[in-house]
Amino acid sequence: MIKLLGVLLLLTAVVGATYLNIDEPIESKGMMENSPALNIGIAGPGQTVYIVAERATIGPDDRIHDPGWDQLVITDVPPGWSTEDSPLYETPMKAKIKIAPDATDGAYTFKATAVNEDNVTGLGNLTVNIILNVSKNVFTIDVTPNEVETGVGEPAIYYIDIDNAGAASDTFSITSSGLPAWRFTKDVLAPHAINPFAPARKTIPYEVVSNEETDKEIYLNVTSQSSDQITKELKVRLKATPSLISDYRATAHGLLIFPLIENPIYSLIAFLSKLIL
User: Which of 114, 137, 170, 257 is deepest in the core (most CB within 10 A)?
Assistant: First the structure.
């Protein structure tokens, strides 16, 4: 009974009142001029956040207008930030906010305005307040397994989980250090979180190859392409030992210690190892 009463009160409140439905980065329905500021979560310095909103609303004639709003405009952002309003008549409306690369951690407030172009249907404009928290700690990483044993010249594969808790989708670069002869970068797009309390996970395989026998610790680094301040690093172990496959493949690099009469045999082994191993 109490729940039903609450629904009826809400319906009474919105009758004859224009509203704005925001779908991303988090969902908030029925925002009005006097609604509390909407906190859309966290994002890091240099990252880009998109606010996606619906065009439907209620007009002063108490009828639903779909489409009603024609554009979403962002104003009053902090210095150094940049914005891009949604194109006119885009469905749904999508406005862009780029955080300053040198933005310090903290909560920032700006405005989002739903515009009825030339007030054609008498809706006017509706402005709501948006809060965005800036933090360099917008994601975490985990790596499995922590230790990989493989053959010399064979790939050791680590699986990296990127848990993005931010309001911005972002491209991250994965690199490794500690193995001087290996320079490999893998780029991956990590989607933004729909729910600030439930990060969006992206799992990526990353390969490391040692061309010599080794047993050492290496570091896997994940860094945002938006800002090198948004970065994480984990230590893993790599063991590369000689194997029959790697020995076969090594024959392709020279046969100086073998008698000349055996050269064709080892050349055939090297060829077959590349072909089928």
Answer: 114
